[in-house]
Amino acid sequence: MTQLARLAGAPERPQPREAVASRRPRVAARTLWFAVAVVLALGAALASVALGTRVMGPGEVLDGLGGVLAGDQAGGVAQAAVEKRIPRTLLAVLVGAALGAAGAVMQGITRNPLAEPWILGVTPGASLAVVTGIAFFGLASPASYIWVAIAGAAGAAVFVYAVGSLGRGGATPLKLALAGAASSAAFTSLISAILLPRIDVMNQFRFWQIGGVGGADYARIGQVLPFLLVGVVLCLACARGLNSMALGDDVAAGLGQNVVLIRTLAGLGAVILCGAATAVAGPIGFVGLVVPHLCRLLVGIDHRWLLPASMVLGAALLTAADVVGRVVARPSEVDVGIVTAFIGAPVFIWIVRRTKLRAL
């Protein structure tokens, strides 16, 4: 019985005590690495509160947090800095977790090591939908951005998968990667074509196009949080089904899994996460590519561990990238989308050379 078959829920023969005992170190190692990821995420969050144009020491951070929690209306500079940075940190954590989980799910349902919201055109599709709505339909409500972005992400995902499925062999990793890259380029060009003649729209969203969490506030977080929760629940509910699909659609169906339903629900969850994250933070790439591959090295291929680990490590990566962007260009800042692209591009090249576009 292979590891994938066990993860997919296939019936097992009774195992000797030695085999059962040998699994305990694996569970302990996964738990340890997951705990390390949580610590990294917490450390990145604390750094995000402490670092910026004004660097604060631990004492100032604690004083500022105390003032915020106490509702002190006459707080000092430290409290004002903390109060401004907390929503930014929370948004970075939520968006990073959403993109990490979405990338892991997309790689699972396509069995494509290069599947990622940006590379498959899902994030640019959401961006195109938002910009189109603003330029031609007068969208102004942040809540409407989320719905439009989710619709654009869903349309882009269906389009790329349909194009990648044409011809002999169906949706192979190579065809999906090529279709996604071509679609991303086309969507990005259309965004530029819409924005260039409209100076007012371009000035309003030129920083949003790059991707960042600098304009975070509690109202935006409250608007996007229900969508992110729905997306996460859908993805986690399909974890065992994704394990079965790793064996192939025929084997998964033989194990009693409804392959079409699993692929639809998991894909819907990933699309909701991508669309909502893009609407609130702009198009941010490569988080969904880098994080799942790293998590597979740490916790293995079981999606019941992989998805939560991708969420935690995605939150840590995006928050840390936001901190780096604030520190390297102080007193100005580099948008987090640029930092993640700088990190993710070499990883993308490494994955291509290592996998040679084989399926997972």
UniProtKB/TrEMBL annotation:
It holds the Pfam family FecCD. InterPro entries: ABC_BtuC-like, ABC_transptr_permease_BtuC. Residues 1-22 are annotated as: Disordered. Its main location: membrane. The chain crosses the membrane at residues 32-52, 89-106, 118-139, 145-164, 176-199, 219-239, 260-285, 305-324, 336-353. Keywords: Cell membrane, Membrane, Transmembrane, Transmembrane helix, Transport. It is found in: Cell membrane. It is a multi-pass membrane protein. It comes from the Bacteria. Belongs to the binding-protein-dependent transport system permease family. FecCD subfamily. This is Iron ABC transporter permease. It comes from Nocardioides nanhaiensis. The lineage of its organism: Bacteria, Bacillati, Actinomycetota, Actinomycetes, Propionibacteriales.
